[in-house]
Design brief:
The longest helix is centred in the N-terminal third of the chain and has 12 residues. With 142 residues, the chain is α+β, with helices and mostly antiparallel strands. The chain has two helices and eleven strands, in the order ααβββββββββββ. Bound molecules: FE2/S2 (inorganic) cluster.
């Protein structure tokens, strides 16, 4: 089977349509400090918008930044990366507080980042988040 010989460049090219996306996503999740973020999560604090946009007990998906922000019953905000931990796809759907990955159907709890539906097994990466002048600021260094 071609999939067993990873040394063959011709074989590797066959999987090239999927592999680079997955590689970028995983790199963005595990990289600390420098590295290429590509289509990953913010590498510096970003202004996501007014804090009033995230209701208590709710969540909001910021697709442009691959970030989800949630607020628990006490009003505490949390932010997570929405780069799927399965193979690195950007998650583009939020139903209530459940994130749904378009690639293979993994689901995550937007409040805790935990997996609620496989094939993903690892939770979403948590990001620093804070409120400044009524704005949600999220990302490393926030
Ligand atoms: Fe999200 Fe596979 S990349 S389920």
């Amino acid at each position: 089977m071609p999939s067993r010989s990873s040394a063959s460049r011709r074989t590797v090219l066959r999987g090239a349509a999927v592999a680079p996306v997955a590689g970028l996503g995983l790199a963005a999740c595990s990289a600390s400090g420098q590295g290429s973020a590509g289509a990953g999560t913010p590498t510096a604090p970003v202004d996501l918008g007014a804090e009033s946009e995230v209701a208590k007990g709710g969540a909001k998906l910021y697709r442009d930044y691959n970030v989800v922000v949630s607020r628990d019953g006490n009003g505490t905000l949390k932010a997570h990366s929405t780069i799927c931990t399965h193979a690195g796809c950007p998650i583009n759907k939020l139903q209530g507080t459940t994130l749904i990955c378009p690639c293979h159907g993994s689901q995550f709890d937007a409040v805790t980042g935990k997996v609620v539906q496989s094939p993903a097994t690892e939770p979403l990466a948590e990001l620093p988040v804070k409120i400044t002048s009524g704005r949600i600021i999220a990302g490393p260094g926030a």
